[in-house]
Design brief:
The protein is an alpha/beta fold and 758 residues long. The structure holds iron/sulfur cluster. Iron/sulfur cluster is lined by residues 10, 12-13, 15-17, 47-48, 50-51, 177.
Amino acid sequence: MSGSWEKTACILCECNCGLEVQLGGEGGRHFTRIRGDKAHPASRGYACEKPHRLDYYQNGPDRITSPLRRKPDGTFEEIDWNSAIREVARRLSAVRDEFGGDTIFYYGGGGQGNHLPAAYSAATRRAVGSRYRSNALAQEKTGEFWVNGRLMGAAVRGDFKHCEVALFIGKNPWQSHGIPRARVTLKAIAKDLKRAMIVIDPRRTETAELADIHLQVKPGTDAWLLAALGAVLVEENLIASSWLEEHVDDYEPVLATLGEVPISEYCEKSGVPETLVREAARRIGKAESVAVFEDLGIQMNRHSTLSSYLNKLLWLLTGNFGKKGAQYVPALLVNLAGGLDKIAGPAAKDKVTPVVGARVISGLVPCNVIVDEILTDHPKRYRAMIVETANPAHSLADSTRMREALSALDTLVVIDIAMTETARLADYILPTPTQYEKAEATFFNFEFPENYFQLRHPLFDPPDGVLSEPEIHARLCEALGAYTEEDLAPLHAAAAQSREAYIPVFFGTVLTNPKLAPYAPVILYRTLGPHLPPGLAPGAVVWGLVHQFAAAYPDSLRRAGFEGKGFEAPERLFDAILTSPSGIVYSVDEFDESWKRIKTAGGKFHAAIPELLDALGSLRTEEVGTGDRAFPFVLSAGERRSFTANTILRNPAWRKKDVQGSLRMSPDDAAQLRVTDGDRVRLTTKRASVEVPVEVSEMMQPGHVSLPNGLGLDHPNDGGERVQTGIAPNELTASEDRDWLAGTPWHKHVPARIEAVQ
Ligand code: SF4
């Protein structure tokens, strides 16, 4: 394949931009050239600087190429796959039989572009009776999910391509992306005099530099600022009254509560001049359309769920939903925020975790309570855990306690490509191909009015000794006795004939059979997978998703050009997916389609959420700041920068700049501490104390410091010695510092102390 361009995608953020790559180097196992794929329907040739370094992932250190079992002395030994599957199945079923399947906890199942494993793992979870699971969304997005659920029973996104006003809250798309062709889109908004960009961020980010209005809040005071913005909308009558009357239930209590907000006082608390707050509110209130994106800056901060609610009130009170340039509900192939329809409306009851009683939102246990669900003598504590394509020992709060919790489990099974910080604590490690050695896909398909999907083809053969996740889950289900060869015989026979013959057999014998239906994903892989084009067997589950999609969104599918009687339309879509390595448009919507996707009983928004209106009232008596003289600084732990990514890039050599990951601080603070670029300071939180180099940055305001994400991994140096590069942010964070409602962590508001190091 050397010299030819192959199609794939970047896996370093949720945008999954399409790429074209050339392969070569030793054994043809390296990326030699990488460029944006102009044929990719969403990114259209766009790519930022990061994917050019993807070879550091594909050929990263610490690769595992045989199943491993922990020995009594704590070291690992290689074992064959049959033994590994048999022993893992036996250990998990022993936990299930003695303590109940609900004590087996599942974490992970994806990353930024590795989502097929999550679909297959559902079968294994059912086979062991597991009821609780989580992933990174539960330390970021679940507060927003919950608010969306209560407001309308569905998740929304903003239409930044067409909006008049773009509002970014705790979001720096220049670095964290999140919208297709982010930098092109930002520049287009900034250049257009009829449009405006408003940024709420304590830092003067690259996006804030482009903005028309930057509301530079004091760190952790977003809720006061958002309340003041909402209050100005009410006070100055900038709300869409007739729209509210038509589309929103119970908005009066919201208007009444916002009407009581002391605007001047809240502006002062947030550190933003009232004149600027009023200017921003007027720009929002008078715009034809407003699109909003809130992100980790508020979602990993104090009052995160309240801030999500206040954000949504801004666009709701101004009627910015279901029209061009406003908020929309996309047509999803997989609903990652599933279950929101069940919490729509005030009477809904939330499922809770067995030990702490924390809310389970969209089926996800809050990441910050996992340690408390394990480190206890509660009879329903989690006793076994499957961790798949994730690294909670590094990526979740309070690493010391997390390591302690993972070590306290009866059984820890890790499914991953490399010896991660979590894998080191495992009883069994089941190694998998990289994302470029198998067919793979992302379910981050959130666009509108057109939506996109790409089934990526494998680019390299996997090494001997690893198995893809669908193969692992199929083998585990079989070892657990989930189904028999006899059960699958009619499906094998039908698949050998044709997909047309397979459809009625699958729907008739699997989906209608309560014994087999829970294992549908792996049954598809086992029976349909072998009949898909070479290398694409892991895409078998997509066939099932496409049929589900066609039943739920027939008009969206038809508008995307997939028509026909009966099952013809989804079959055509599936064929197009298999034969379009750059991806395809699978859904086309009208702008008002979103209205049909509101899941409340009457099809209207439920604006009043009593718990959050009470929380809004409580802001009056709360002080801002860290409230602790021993820790006067606010540390943002995990800033996205040009050369940071999540921990799948384990070799620090991929970073061109700032290899050690400096602590950014304001010029005022640097002067006060008498330090300058490259000097080292001691950074102390209530959990840990570390030394770190300083970068003096005009981005930061006094009292606010920031560490990048993705650092602090160890790796072998040239002499084979293990060295750690940079600070692992979660050594400094605490699991109890979390949102009272959603349990999301306060990683962007870690009280800290800083001293210069002589
Ligand atoms: S925006 Fe950059 S990091 Fe994100 S998927 Fe695209 S190329 Fe990769």
